[in-house]
UniProtKB/TrEMBL annotation:
Annotated GO MF terms: electron transfer activity
Recorded superkingdom: Eukaryota
Name of the protein in question: Proton gradient regulation 5
Annotated source species: California macrophylla
InterPro entries: PGR5
GO cellular component: chloroplast
One example of a Gene Ontology biological process annotation: photosynthetic electron transport in photosystem I
Length: 128
């Protein structure tokens, strides 16, 4: 960006700029060619490419209870384990809902508590 100052003596010779040249020639030379190399030559038209959504736990394999969860999943089997996990999550959500009813919390607070329980379960390794 060019810095421009105006001297106290007025406009007669008082306009000083660090920019030398004209706007037409400001992008000629090495800078122009470097910029042209960094810009792609063609643009694809169509749907943007998206990666597939991942439901994977970012803390998978981490947490205090992760080894126990992995061993249990290997013993019981993946399908049966996911059924049991779903039932446990549903029961835990019901407990949170009943707790919110007993203290008079609204639905937004209840959802916040359920999200907090999920984050804690991920950190502890229950969702490994």
């Amino acid at each position: 960006m060019a810095a421009t100052t105006i001297c106290a003596s007025g406009l007669k010779g008082g306009l000083v700029s660090s920019f030398h040249g004209t706007w037409g020639t400001s992008m000629v030379g090495d800078d122009y060619y470097a910029l042209m190399k960094s810009v792609p030559r063609y643009v694809t038209v169509g749907k943007p490419v998206r990666s597939a959504p991942s439901m994977k736990n970012v803390n998978e394999g981490k947490g205090v209870f992760a080894p126990l969860v992995v061993v249990t999943r290997n013993i019981v089997g993946k399908k049966r384990f996911n059924q049991l996990r779903g039932k446990a999550i549903a029961l835990h959500s019901q407990v949170i809902t009943e707790f919110c009813k007993s203290i008079g919390a609204d639905g937004k607070q209840r959802q916040g508590l359920i999200r907090l329980a999920k984050k804690n379960g991920e950190r502890l390794g229950f969702l490994a």
